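Please describe what follows:
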Amino acid sequence: MIQVVCAICKSKFRVRNNAPNPVPCRICQTSIDVPQFTLRDAEIAKRNARCPKCPACHKLLATGVKFCISCGTYTGDVWAAQAASFEAKEKLKDKVWWRRMKDWFVRW
């Protein structure tokens, strides 16, 4: 539980750790932005950015599944596709580096 103080009516109340941000004041219903919840939401968003999403309903997919749990859409092997795209980007970086070296030697 986190202690929250309203900036408008100065009332103090406690909210659960899993409450959504911003929290409404219990007395005057003013939206109160809790810094701990902002950090928590930023960490969750950062973690979820790496997870693939269902192409139909855009919900996060669990690890290693081929069907979306919420809508049942076949997603294929999304995890393997992400790994392949990462490897392709790394190979492209290597090609660019070698091309620059080759151009440097040609000019030299």
Remarks:
- The longest helix spans residues 78-107.
- The chain has two helices and four strands.
- Helices lie at 35-49, 78-107.
